[in-house]
Design a protein that fits this description.
By secondary structure, this protein is an alpha+beta fold. It has one domain. The chain has four helices and six strands. It has a four-stranded antiparallel sheet with strand order 1-2-6-5. A two-stranded antiparallel ribbon has the order 3-4. The radius of gyration is 17 Å and the shape is globular.
Length: 105
């Protein structure tokens, strides 16, 4: 009986954690970045797969709004098509680099 009870608690915690890890839209991530929100780091890590962040392929977009992210200790830059590289911003207290792009840029 005790084993079933422990499993039930584990299952509840796992489901609650999964539901709390909400993926964010490009606009939501852009808004968090503009506000220098302390929750930006968590929003990035719940939105993107670790593999994509490490490989530099983490991005989300909708219409003219895009958000790019990478996990690296180097100083990253973003190259789109054949345009000049633009520096990415570092998320405070992390190895995450970001570059939000909106229709106004």
């Amino acid at each position: 009986m005790l084993r079933i009870w422990k499993f039930s608690i584990f299952l509840f915690v796992a489901v609650a954690s999964a539901l709390g890890a909400e993926k964010r839209s490009a606009q939501q991530l852009i808004d968090l970045a503009k506000a220098n929100s302390p929750s930006l780091r968590e929003a990035i890590t719940t939105t993107f797969d670790v593999k994509d962040l490490k490989e530099g392929t983490a991005w989300v977009g909708h219409g003219p709004d895009f958000f790019f992210a990478i996990e690296t200790t180097a100083k990253p830059s973003l190259v789109i098509d054949e345009k000049p590289a633009v520096p990415m911003q570092q998320v405070a207290g992390s190895d995450l680099g970001i570059r939000p792009l909106t229709s106004s840029q």
